């Protein structure tokens, strides 16, 4: 099977339909996808491979109030940090995930319970509070993969987790980012948002 990968050199990508892409981990590399309507029972998943032990895989939030999801590699383990309004929670799964092989990540929500699964191993945690919706779709941010756009540096108040801007960027390959566009919708593979930014090169892998 052929797999098209995209190597990103600047802020984003211009290719809309792709099976996977490569982020070089530079200070300006990231990919941007449409909003995720996490609702009360949303799920999101992706696959990655890298040889770097640290790096931001995914971030999305409610536009700067409370709610956020941050997925990152920390010394080869996968860490999900999130807030649904009742305080930040952390789930950590896996080890030595920077082995250059593909690994599958899934985040699933069931009202107050959030689960992180990596290669079939799951940890779950319940959130505190009375309301568990993930922000409001109209004001939620897009889904960012691998890093954050540079313009957030001057607009930290738009981030529910401002420290995300300082996380090391992910250097490696991403494929099969899957989530639903709306509550109750069928999850499907996501397409990158069209931008005017340049692409360094396309490579064809087998």
Automatic annotation (TrEMBL):
The keyword Signal belongs to this UniProt entry's keyword annotation: yes
CDD domains xrefs: LamG
A matching Pfam family: Laminin_G_2
Superkingdom of the source species: Eukaryota
Domain (Laminin G): residue spans on this chain: 20-206
Alphabetic keyword roster: Signal
Signal sequence annotation: 1-20
Protein known as: Laminin G domain-containing protein
Organism lineage string: Eukaryota, Metazoa, Ecdysozoa, Arthropoda, Hexapoda
């Amino acid at each position: 099977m052929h797999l098209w990968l995209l190597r990103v050199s600047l802020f984003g990508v211009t290719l809309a339909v792709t099976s996977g892409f490569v982020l070089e981990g530079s200070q300006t590399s990231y990919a941007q996808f449409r909003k995720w309507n996490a609702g009360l029972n949303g799920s999101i998943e992706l696959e990655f491979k890298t040889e770097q032990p640290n790096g931001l895989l995914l971030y999305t939030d409610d536009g700067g109030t409370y709610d956020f999801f941050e997925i990152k590699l920390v010394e080869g383990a996968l860490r999900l940090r999130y807030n649904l309004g009742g305080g930040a929670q952390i789930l950590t799964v896996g080890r030595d995930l920077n082995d250059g092989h593909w690994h599958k990540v899934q985040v699933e929500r069931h009202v107050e319970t959030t689960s992180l699964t990596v290669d079939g191993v799951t940890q779950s945690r319940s959130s505190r509070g009375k309301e568990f919706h993930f922000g409001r779709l109209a004001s939620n941010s897009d889904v960012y993969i691998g890093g954050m756009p540079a313009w957030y540096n001057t607009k930290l108040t738009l981030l529910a987790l401002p420290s995300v801007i300082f996380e090391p960027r992910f250097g490696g390959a991403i494929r099969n980012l899957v989530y639903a566009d709306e509550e109750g919708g069928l999850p499907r593979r996501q397409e990158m948002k069209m931008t005017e930014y340049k692409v360094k090169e396309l490579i064809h892998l087998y």
